[in-house]
Amino acid sequence: MGFLVTVAEFGFSLLLIVFFGFLSVVVFEAWRRRLSNVSVETVTTLEDPKSLKPIPCPHITEPAEKYLSLIVPAYNEEQRLPAALEETMDYLQDRASRDKSFSFEIVIVDDGSVDGTKRVAFDFVRKHTVDNIRVIPLGKNQGKGEAIRKGMMHSRGQLLLMLDADGATKVTDLEKLENQILAVAREEYSIRNPASKEMDFRIGDVQVSAFGSRAHLEEKALATRKWYRNFLMKGFHLVVLLAAGPGIRDTQCGFKMFTRAAARKLFTNVHLKRWCFDVELVYLCKRFNIPMVEISVKWSEIPGSKVNMLSIPNMLWELALMSVGYRTGLWKIHQACDTERSS
Ligand SMILES: Nc1nc2c(ncn2[C@@H]2O[C@H](COP(=O)(O)OP(=O)(O)O)[C@@H](O)[C@H]2O)c(=O)[nH]1
Ligand SMILES: [Mg+2]
């Protein structure tokens, strides 16, 4: 009898081991597929809403045609987008009228909005022409990170700025980022090409990134916010530190600028599609030795934020994915995007 019980126990344990072994393989396989799922580049078709004619879709691997591109991710921004666009356009037109060498474009990426975002955006295109402002419609919602990636991949600037659709940052602050990038790029260029002349220097060819930052506002925010929000913020900073390492105090600010060469490298590699793609950008800058500067910007909290408590599990999941993806080598780094091809 005792012998039979032992055999039954042994058989049962074996069954459990086989069952859990099988389960682990299934889960690991699903995890592996998710991890190695690099975004596939889709060809985006652009259209002039005035003539309804298709226009050629530029690509980050082609030479720059403008000085500055502003990439605006927009998800259900019918209310907040118009004022932000007006202010941005006023600044850009004013600057272009003062400086004939300054050229720009705004690229709005409509991320599957279900309100009137697309209508608002196309009204602006009709008013300001498709050469100055264009819309990339993504059809279905893919996340802020993916929307920005698509915008970057199809923009024409030597300098590429991502900024939120709610106008939370003063657009004139882009000059702070631009000036820092210019200073760092000139230095990098002269170190790498000691014999070259100033006239050969093209800002878009040197890899530099500038991160707008609200870290200087943190003390005030800590004093005025509820304790659990501060707790969550500190916790998030710790997780970011573990995932991407030190370097940038505010990874999440929606105001960042990249040279074309840096953007080409970063956005052909970035995997995360939602809120933590910024953390991956920091990680990638470090991997590629792309110089990063963090610059304080003016920030106003605009009502209507889409980040909520439900975004937290997604953020943690993305950071876990990133850590495992790069550490196990399942997320590959593509080096082959150093140079542009001629169009
Ligand atoms: N593409 C895309 N953009 C989003 C999504 N959710 C928010 N955004 C955009 O991200 C930017 C910042 O969003 P916001 O809700 O103001 O976030 P907060 O300022 O960090 O609280 C805005 O331009 C939004 O339109 C989304 O699911 N997809
Ligand atoms: Mg906002």
TrEMBL record:
The enzyme's main class, written as a single word, is: transferase
Name the chemical reaction catalysed here. a di-trans,poly-cis-dolichyl phosphate + UDP-alpha-D-glucose = a di-trans,poly-cis-dolichyl beta-D-glucosyl phosphate + UDP
Main location group: endoplasmic reticulum
- Ranges annotated as spanning the membrane: 12-31
List UniProt keywords, sorted A-Z: Endoplasmic reticulum, Glycosyltransferase, Membrane, Signal-anchor, Transferase, Transmembrane, Transmembrane helix
Glycosyltransferase 2-like domain location: 69-181
State whether keyword Transferase applies. Answer: yes
The protein's matches in Pfam families, at most eight in alphabetical order, are given as: Glycos_transf_2 (PF00535)
Q: Where in the cell is it found?
A: Endoplasmic reticulum membrane
Q: In what way does this protein cross or attach to the membrane?
A: Single-pass membrane protein
The source's superkingdom equals Eukaryota
Pathway it works in: Protein modification; protein glycosylation
Leader sequence range is none
Under InterPro entries, the record lists: DPG_synthase, Glyco_trans_2-like, Nucleotide-diphossugar_trans
EC number(s) given by UniProt: 2.4.1.117
Family, similarity comment: Belongs to the glycosyltransferase 2 family.
Q: What is this protein called?
A: dolichyl-phosphate beta-glucosyltransferase
